[in-house]
Structure formats: structure tokens, C-alpha cells
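Limitations
The C-alpha cells in this dataset are predictions for the assembled complex, not deposited experimental models. Users should treat interface geometry with appropriate caution, especially where small molecules or nucleic acid strands are included. An illustrative entry is reproduced here so readers can see what is and is not provided.
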Amino acid sequence: MKMETDLNRFHKIVRGKIKQELKKFIANGSLIGRHGKETISIPLPRIDIPHFSFGNNNKGGLGQGNGKVGEKIGPGEQEGQAGAAGEGPGQHSLEVDVSLEDLSKMLGEELALPRIELKGQKNLSSEHRKYGSVHRRGPESLHHFRRTYKEALKRSVISGEYNPEEPLIVPIKADKRYRSFTVTRQPVANAVILYMMDVSGSMGDEQKEIVRLTSFWLDTWLSQQYKGIERRFIIHDATAREVDEPTFFRTKESGGTLISSAYRLAVKLMESHYPPQDWNIYLFHFSDGDNWSGNDTAECLKLLGEQLLPAANLFCYGQVESRYGSGQFLRDLVKQFGDKHDKVTLAQIKDREAIMGALKTFLGKGK
Amino acid sequence: MHSNSNLTAQLHEIAQSLHAKSREVGLDPQTTVFELVDYKQLNEVAAYGGFPTRYPHWRWGMEYERLSKSYTYGLSVIYEMVINNDPCYAYLLRSNSLVAQKTVIAHVYGHSDFFKNNYWFSKTNRKMLDQMANHANMVRRIIDEVGHDESENFIDVCLSLENLIDIHSSFRASTKALSQEEVENMGKKPVAKLHAERSYMDRYMNPQEYLDQQRKKIEDSAEKMQKFPQQPTHDVLRFLLDFAPMSSWQKKILQLVRDEAYYFAPQGQTKILNEGWATYWHSKMMTKLAPLHASEIVDYCDHYAGVVANHGGKMNPYRLGVSLLRHIEKRWDRGQFGMEYQNIDDYQQRSRWDTQVGKGQEKIFEIRRYHNDVTFLEEYFDEDFCHESKMFLYDYDERSGKQIISNRQFKDIKNYLLKMLTNLGNPRISVSDGNYHNRGELLLEHHHEGVDLQHEYTIEVLRNLHRVWKRPVHIKTVIDSIAKCVGFDGHNHSLERM
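Predicted assembly:
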């Protein structure tokens, strides 16, 4: 198609625009909820070519229909019911569909994220059958009628049996064709993301929104790096439990905070479902950092050091700032692991603007 | 004469019989080539502004995506595209029903006749199809030479100036600019004395004051001619081509954009009349001249209703055009013109007036030959028509936050329409000084007619203009009733009171 080049040029411009605005999109969440399975639709201001033109300083226009002066008209109403129409220019905004793959690429380019090095090719592999070829033998259920007919037609033309006046084609056994498949095996590196979130009383709606936005972009990035990706959600206050995604973002508890409860549950989940030799494991934990007691913090550090970190690819802790300020937990983690640890990344997410920086910290290691 | 490329035998026959019919009733369509296309092809052609090939540019891609989307969501279907060319090319959507195909073919012959016979199209390039292909090749060569980004950026710059043309210039005898020498000599021309029969009369006929006055007049006009340009010109693009410092590939691109802008101008100038004319004839063909079968008539009506419907938020040129043409036909059939008729004040008496002169057909053919939208409405959009078609102006009501009907006055409605159509709805802008401040700066002038320019765009366009002119650029305009001059010097924008 001739249009292809022009379409590509246009998409390149759109990509440029999106990248320009990416920071805004990351912070304001207008994209979430607009995404389908593979594409996301992004509202952009109309891209156009400026001309000397009249300012639109009145919203009036010319219409046709019944009605007295002073009567209101419904824009776009059908004629016959005091209907009206005008020629005033509408405010166009451009809605472009971008695949999640593209979006994740842009995110990667914009944040300069390294691609993830897969944890040793696992012997997990998926069998994929593709019906791409035609064979002479096969089960009747895979009979390829058109090909068979074609063969029969060819044979009858060659042998001179074919009579255009009375075209009668009778396939014989040698004409029969069957669909056939080829098997391809694809190595699949499996990954699981474990989201943990503090839902204690001090975590407000804004804090949760920040977590939600951050996790959306984490998902977007990671899901493009792995074929199959699983996500599990753990919420905790003084006790932890596993929930589904909507609950994860909605639940509000009022209890205190025992972070170790979540880590313990994570360990349990990993042991039962995700043996570390087969899985790439990502742990994300969001909290305001107000742990109940020093004892519990010590317990957390122990769990992390002995069980979680050896198994996981990456442990990320994002501390969101609640209205009670920022807690101690982040400092404790820094003290224990330093900020150069191979698998631990820590970020303080003060507000929405800080999400971008947090993403960069979390994913910047290429783990 | 038909050379139909890929029409089915049935459609070919239909096209031929409709062509014969259209000639019978006095239409004189260009040779027309129909081509059956699927919706993807049609969207592509439509995105290219009706042509199969255009120069490479992203906005075709944008338009294509928009059309494809609105087609996918069932928001709009393009039934037909037709190109003003010799031969005329028209595209039919393959998936149209037979009734729609017939209607569209008849409609296309209307356009084809209009292109060929309307005065405002008389100066257009009838080999534009080839020209467009040449343009495409030229731009591709430029891309090879200077790179895609570079050339596309410059095309964007030129497109941003594309409405700075003089749509009437091709209809005026060109006035040749005087050479520098001629201008200088002009000031030294001797004063033409009035002829005196007797020599002693001379000093009474040509007193010294008179001679001085005449001398001053000559010098003034010579001084005026010293200006650059000598006359303010509305063809800003021509002026830039002649005087802006551009490299040769840039000149080629600007020339191309200007050529295409002039080619498309008449289509913008005659949208209402052209669509009205085509709609008038397709409806007459389908219902009277080559009537459809009874089984098709409901589908036809459905289609027709779609064509003339007032879709929300838009004035429909098809509807306005066809109803005004019918109104005129009726008036001239019944002799509703001339002094005697005009002087009747009574509406009832006016509408009963019928001298049965039957000049309707003749009249509308005359209109199709000589008029464009502005002259057409100026001349024939009358009070009776305005009221019968229930026109009104609406406005945004601050109090209720709704749009309300604000006016049903004939005069205001007509004024609004004419204003909207004048100069294709573009502000009138001319080059008034190419050596502004005596520093080679460029001064444009916006002839303000009540509506201000959109400021953000003005600033952007000045930035683009500067890329062509390479020296500071200015535009005189009026903002909030105060005369101002907006400028751009390559780094900063300025806004000064005049």
C-alpha cells in the first residue's frame, strides 16, 4: 500500500509526541482503564499545521430548523425536533492506538532501561502447533477440500476427461490433500510479580493511587520482557493475606503494620508455587514505612536476607509518603543492604511526579 | 465516449445509459473514468485528497487513519470521490448497493459537468493527475538528496503558509511590475500642461500653483512605485518565491505547495454550488429521467435523506445548494423576477405569482456556468428562501451554558454566510512591505474584518514564515480592537501597538 510510508511517518510523529508527554501520562493515570488486551488508546492534542486563521471567539454558527429566538438547541439533535446544526469547528483531539509493546519500548527508551537478562534459559517450553502445510495423507477430519478439488481438476484437465460443457469433477484417492501441522517448541522464561502493599490506616487514597500507577507501568514493562507473566497480590496490615487485583487497590484497613507478615506470606507462596529455579521472581513492596516495632523490622530483614533475596531476581521497596510523613523502614533497609546491593532497589515516592524516578530505580538494574 | 477501467458489465451499462441521459438534458460532462475500489483503497484515495498518488507526507497518514477509524466504527462512509481532471476520474465503493452505485454515478456526472463548464474551474490544470504524480517524484528525489526529516519539515513550513494565495489572481490580467529604471524616470516625467489655444492663455490655463501640484502628484506616485512590492500583493507565496532566499529544492517545494493550493481553490470556492448541482441532477435522474425501479425507491430515499440531512454541528452544503437551486428554478419557471415582481410586498401575492415563462432550466444552467458560492448566495439567497428553509443563527448563551437560537434576521444570516465563504473562510492577508524598517524585513498586513486572528497560530505561522524569509517577519493586525503588530525575529516574538 502506498499509504504505508505516510502512515509510518505519522506514527513516528505520534510516538514523538507520546514520548514528549510520557512524564505527564505516567503521573496522571488517564491511560489506565483505557487499555485493552494489546493496545492502549491515548488521547493526544490534535496534531496539525498552523495557518493564519480566524480565532474562534464565538461558539455560534448557522443552523436550520424550527424554534423561536432564545430557544435552546441541542447540538447534534436530529432535525424535526427544533433540531439545529451549525458549522462551528469542533475541538478535535486525536485518539491513537498504541500497542503495549510500543508503549513499553517508549518507556524503556525514555527511562533508558536496560533489557532484562533472563535467568538461565529454563527447560520449560511450550509446544506450539501451526497448521501451515498440506500433506498427501492424513485423517479425514483434516481433509482440505479446496486443494483436493484443485488436484482433481488438474488431473481431469491433463487427462482430457474435463468437459467444459458439463464440468464434472470426481476426486480419486490420489487427489486427496490434508492439512498438516508442524510443531515448534519455544523456550519460555516464566516470571511472577508479587505485589505487596501496606493497607494500614496511614495509607490514604492518594498513596494507593501512586502505587496503582507505579504498578501499571511496572506491569507494562515486565510483561513485554517475559512471555507469560503472573501477578499475585498481597495486602497487609498487622496480618497479611492474598487478594485479587481489584481488592488490592481498594482495600483500606485500619490496623497497625507488621511488615514481616507480608514477607512471610511471600515466602510461603514462593515455596508452594514458584520454585526459584524455574521462575523469575519480582517482589515489589509499597508501604509508608511505619513498621510497628524494631523487633518486627529485624524479623523482616532476616526473612529478606535468608529467604526472599536468594530466590528473587529483584526486590523493590517503594516508600510512599503518607500524611504522617515517611517512616523508618526505608532507612533500616538502607542500613542493612546499602544502596549498592545487587538485588535490592529502594525508592522514596513522595508524590506522583516521583513515580518516573522510582520506575527508573526499580528497573534500571536490568534484573 | 467511455473508457471504464474495471467496472462490471452491469455498472458499465448503467454508466453509459446515465451518460447518454445526462447529455440529453443538456449536461456536458467531461469524459469520466470510473474505478471500482474497496474501502481501503477509497480511504487511501480520499486521504490523498482524491488522487491516487501524492508526495510523501505524514498528514495523509493521519487523514487515512482518521477515515479508517470512522469507517471501522461505522461513523461515516465515503460513497464517492471524483477528481477534476481530463478525463475525470471517479471512484466507486465496491460494496455499495446497486441503487447507491446508480445514484453515485449520476452524481459524478453532475460534478464532471460542473468541472468542465463552470467559469471558476476554467483556469485549473486539467492534467493534475499527472502533475500530482510528478510532484510525488520530485519530492522523492528531494528526499534522496536532503533526507526525509529535512524535506518533510520544510513541507510543513510551506503547508502552514498555503492559504496565503490570491484566489482571484488567475482571473486578472497580470500587471507587470515596472523596472527600477522605469520607476526612476517616472519622477522626471514632464508635467502635462493643459492645452491652450492661444499662447497668451497659457499662464491662465496653467498657473504656477497648478504646475507645482501636478509635479508633486507625479513625484508622489513615483515614490509609491519605489516601494517593494509596488502594490500590496495577496499572493504571498508568489512574493516569497520571487524574493525569499531559498535553496533550489526549497523553491521547488514551495512552488509545488502553491500550485496545489491554486488547483484546489475553486473546489473550495464552489462547494455549495457544485454539490448542489450534482445533487440536483442525481435526484432528477433517479426519480424522473432514468427512474429507479419501484423496489429500489425506498433505498434511494434513505440514501438521499442521508445526503441532505443536517448532521449535528455542520452546515450541509449539499442541502443548501440543492434547495437554493430548486428555489431558483421555481422562481424563474413562474417568472418571479424583475421589477414588477420585486415591488410586491405581500407574501401571499408573491408566492402566487406565476407567469409560466418556464425559464427555470435555462437559469440554473446559467448559474452553473458563471457563479461561485459567494456570488451565488449574494445574488440568489433571498428573504423568502431564508425563511422557507428556516435558517437561524445560534450563539452560546453564557447564562444557561447552552447554545440558543440568537437570530432569525435575513440580513444577518446572509451576512454570516457570505463572510464565512469569502476568501475560502481565510483571513485576507497581503504583503505590504518587503523592506520593512529599511532592513529587509517582511511586513504582512491582515485586513481586519471584525474577527481577530487566532493568536497561537499566528505566532507559529510567523515562526515558519521566518524560516523562509530568514529576516524578521511582522504582521499588522487588530487584537481586541487595537491595531497591533506581531513580529518574530528568529528568537523572540514581539507584540507592539501600532
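Some entries come with short summary sentences. For this one: DSSP finds 21 helices and ten strands in chain B.
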